[in-house]
Amino acid sequence: DIDRARCTPAFERQITEDLRWLGIAWDGPVRRQSEHFDSYRSALRRLDAMGLVYPASMSRRRIREHVDAAEARGEVWPRDPDGQPHYPGLERDFSKAERDVLTHSGHPYTLRLDMGKAVAAAGGDLTWRETGSGPDGARGVLKADPAGWGDVILARSDTPTSYHLSVVADDAAQKITDVVRGQDLFHATAVHRLLQQLLELPEPRYHHHELLLGPDGKKLSKTHRDRSIRAMRDAGLSRRDVLDAIEDAPRSGRVGTVSVHS
Q1: CA-CA distance, 47 to 252, in Å (whole number)?
Q2: Which residues are CB-contacts of 155 (< 8 A; sequence separation ≥ 6)?
């Protein structure tokens, strides 16, 4: 629940009610990330002390303009596995005084990982153990390539963490041994392995599963107005109806099992 505007108690109650209705239980209390901001700040300070963090101020529009101009000059701009251009990193070499001006200006900024320095600091080849499969069917001991993501965001001026930073801290704090999540997060594992190495955190096993897809071939999403579990319940479907539909999905040309990270 990092995004306090979108993550409300009502949504939390709905998630837990739907999971219980499906017969999915969990051990111990649910970890709310908003209650553990101090742990993320501590991890961020450690990375900053290693010289791996810098404040960045470019908006999405400015990034797009910068990349468009570079490509118009014939440059080939690197893109991450999601197809987004790497952050230009114009602030990487700012002096402390320049960084202080940026962070005290009152304007929004992000804290980014200097990926080049971070990979060098991690040393050696990074790998992870994959018991599921990647989009290309890859499994076993896989090579991690965090550099393919460029300077990822670790925190924002109004939120002391990001998905990447919080999940590795959460998994370590909860002694997670196996992370199960969708293939849309397969490539992000490289960033998580890098952060685990830098912060000296345990390495869990990873299992990435195929996604449930809609008729258009895209993953199910509220953005596309796909039906939620609650909507299925309200329409009169039983718990068995929903579970049978999921189990039958691969045989109908759609794919998936449903799991939750950590």
Answers
A1: 47
A2: 40, 44, 110, 111, 161, 162, 165
What are the backbone angles phi and psi of residue 178, rounded to the nearest 5°? -135, 120
What do you get for the CA distance between the two ends of the chain, in Å?
14
Handedness of CA 28, 29, 34, 37 (dihedral sign): negative
Question: Pick from 206, 136, 199: which is nearest to 169 by CA?
Answer: 199
**Which tokens is 133 given?**
């499969």
Ranges of H-type helices in 150-206? 163-173, 189-199
Exposed e or buried b for every residue in 22-39, given b needs 16+ CB within 10 A? eeeeeeeeeeebeebeeb
DSSP reduced 3-state for 101? helix
Contacting residues for 207 by C-beta, under 8 A, at least 6 apart: 130, 131, 132, 178, 179, 180, 181, 259
- Residue 260 or residue 73, greater confidence: 73
Q: Return the pLDDT at 220.
A: 67
Q: CA nearest 119: which of 227, 191, 42, 21?
A: 191
Inter-residue contact 118 to 194 (CB < 8 Å) = yes
Question: Length of the chain in residues, anyone?
Answer: 262
Residue of 184, 198, 204 lying closest to 154 (CA atoms): 198
Q: What percent of the chain has pLDDT over 70?
A: 90
- Provide the pLDDT for residue 262: 38
Per the structure block, which two tokens stand in for 159?
A: 């939120």
The yes-or-no verdict on residue 70 having pLDDT over 60 is yes
| 53-56 sheet: strands from edge to edge | 53-56, 110-113, 153-156
